[in-house]
Amino acid sequence: MEHTWNPQTLRDIFSSVLQMTDEQLKNIPYLQVRENKSGPGWEAVTGFCCLGGCDMDVYSFPSERDAMLFLALLGAVDYQPPLNIACEECYQEYISEQIGGIDSYAE
Length: 107
Fold this sequence. Notes:
Distance between the termini: 49 Å
């Protein structure tokens, strides 16, 4: 469901999320943050590959709290990641399998 947010509503939503404690943020079930794999900081994942389940749309933040706040704000405004989106690697593998499958049937 798509919302039309007015500035006052967004102000109140943002204020309530930004006032949450770390403990409150950690208890939100959809928040999935992790330490950055390639350096200091934390990452927030906002999408997944429909073919392989790979992480997509990964955002980096200097602290765990920043990453949690980002995801909490997205959730508070009912953000939904796009569906049926594949990462490049999985898509290429899928296409290769499809083409390979067609060739093997032709023989």
